[in-house]
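User:
I study polymers; will you set down one protein's sequence and backbone structure tokens?

Assistant:
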Amino acid sequence: MEISTLATYHCLAFVWYFFVAYSIAHVKTEERPSEVFLYGGQWKYLTVLNLVLQAVFYGVSFLADVLRLIKKLRCAKCIISSRDLLFSVLAFPVSTFVCVSFWTLYTYNRELVYPKSLDGVIPLWLNHAMHTAVLPFALLELLALPHRYPAKKKGLILLGFVAFLYISWVLWIYSVTGEWVYPLFALFNPPGLAAFFAGSLAIIVAFYNFGEFLNRMIWDFSSLAQCT
């Protein structure tokens, strides 16, 4: 794909995610259902954190494209390394996890992750923007250009560290409020919750490996060696 086309795509994707994150951040708190508590604001939800992550990723990608267009290749190389690390370790696996886990649990019992009372607060388009569109965007990014993945050990350590931070944040919120971020967690005893978190980590690691596999399948080794 031409650099100018990539720059346009990445700019539009950045604007889209910024708009979605802005929209969810400005949902009126006085209209919130009783099931949704205020502590931690929107930042306790993985879905919202993922929107910010995607906005940052596409912003970095757009910057890399602009630097390549104006021939600032030394600066572009550094930004491209950050772009590829963000995509491989976080943007792709987290988006895939958010989409697949949300709609799996929603289909089983929506009250565990997205109570029906939220329908009166969050419009349908915004729900799909947060939980559905993130996966096609991630797949389109894979198809648009090759990404250099880090060494497996490094990638998994970084992904595991970020997962640990989020789980710690969820547990901290519970220790302060006595409320779980997601009603689903209330169904488990401590060993069951630990097993659930471990299973979730295993799934997101599988999505990391899946993204790396697709990247290699779509782009030959010469493309990966030259990705800039």
Summary: Residues 11 and 102 are 27 Å apart (CA to CA).
